[in-house]
Write a structure and sequence with these properties.
Layout (H helix, E strand, L loop, with lengths): L3 E7 L6 H11 L5 E7 L6 H6 L6 E5 L6 H11 L4 E6 L9 H10 L4 E6 L6 H19 L11 E4 H6 L10 H7 L4 E6 L15 H18 L3 H28 L8 H33 L16
Parallel strand pairs: 1-2, 1-4, 2-3, 5-7
Antiparallel strand pairs: 4-6, 5-6
Length: 312
């Protein structure tokens, strides 16, 4: 088993492959490592440049098409065999020289993941830094996972926690939340960040809408995966109470001789009652699905970190 596995997802990064490989060799010469380049359907010479590295410690995982960063990361982690699994970008913006210090911190603090913080970020202010800061703040407040830089790919995982998390869709941005769902402990440290020299960024302002959508999924998984009725049932009861109060008010008006037919308030009252019933029904169905999810696969709703003998 390797001491260290690096997972590097690349898409049209032909000019960055060989320089990054050189940095990795220099930074990790004291480690028994493997570097796994996951080619996410590149259309340039990326794969050819990877083959030119000519070092058996480097592997190429070629995906059939462009699946996106989350699927590429999952493919790399599934392939990795090291005691520590490191994720980093293939665009030279992360620095492999930070990895040894991150491993030391992982061992010193006996945690499961060390997440990098881009201390002196070399990106555009208005299109990258400010939107990233806003997104980080929203994610921290809504998920209660207090990571300063969700967008930094450079992370070091212990083998077991990396293998237990499942990254799909666009959830690579929420890896710390996925780790927290598995009961993993996370620490952070400042890492270097370099400006992109070659190639083009694959991120744009349009990813904001994807982040918001995925954030809703993460909030649900973090807070309500094992108790969906608390969400749907609570909303349903609230809707029923509001609908009942509206209808009681309209009933009182009717009994005093007022014409309530055609009033928008009548429609609202009926809709709130129906919505409340539907939400409670969704909650019951979600509870059944949750129990099926855990019991049919013999999954446990908890994770044991370790068991210690404390007696003489």
């Amino acid at each position: 088993m390797k001491q260290l596995s690096l997972v590097i997802c690349v898409y049209n990064e032909e000019e960055n492959i060989l320089p990054l490989a050189g940095q990795i060799k220099k930074a990790l010469e004291a480690y028994d490592f493997e570097a796994i380049y996951v080619d996410d359907g590149s259309t340039d010479q990326t794969r050819e440049r990877i083959r030119e590295i000519g070092d058996e410690r480097f592997k190429l995982v070629k995906l059939r098409k462009n699946y996106g960063q989350s699927s590429a990361l999952q493919a790399g982690i599934d392939t990795a065999e090291g005691n520590y699994i490191v994720t980093l970008d293939g665009d030279l913006q992360n620095d492999p020289a930070d990895i040894p210090a991150m491993i030391e911190k992982l061992e010193a603090e006996d945690c499961d993941v060390v997440a990098g913080i881009r201390a002196n970020r070399q990106d555009g202010m208005f299109l990258r830094k400010i939107p990233s800061q806003i997104a980080n703040s929203i994610i921290r407040q809504t998920t209660d996972v207090k990571i300063r830089d969700y967008g930094c790919t450079l992370k070091v995982f212990r083998y077991d926690i990396a293998k237990n998390i499942k990254i799909y869709g666009e959830l690579h941005r929420f890896i710390p939340v996925l780790v927290a769902l598995e009961g993993g402990s996370i620490t952070q440290m400042d890492v270097h960040h370099h400006a992109r020299v070659h190639g083009k960024s694959k991120y744009g302002i349009n990813r904001t809408f994807k982040v918001v959508s995925d954030l809703l999924v993460m909030v649900f998984l973090k807070k309500y995966l094992q108790k969906p009725m608390h969400l749907f049932g609570g909303l349903g009861v609230f809707a029923i109470i509001i609908g009942t109060l509206i209808n009681l008010y309209l009933l009182a008006l009717k009994l005093t001789g007022h014409d309530i037919w055609g009033k928008p308030l009548l429609l609202l009252g009926v809709m709130m009652l129906l919505a409340g019933i539907q939400l409670i029904t969704f909650g019951l169905l979600a509870e059944i699905m949750m129990r099926t999810y855990f019991e049919s696969q013999n999954k446990k709703p908890y994770r044991i970190r370790k068991i210690e003998q404390v007696g003489p």
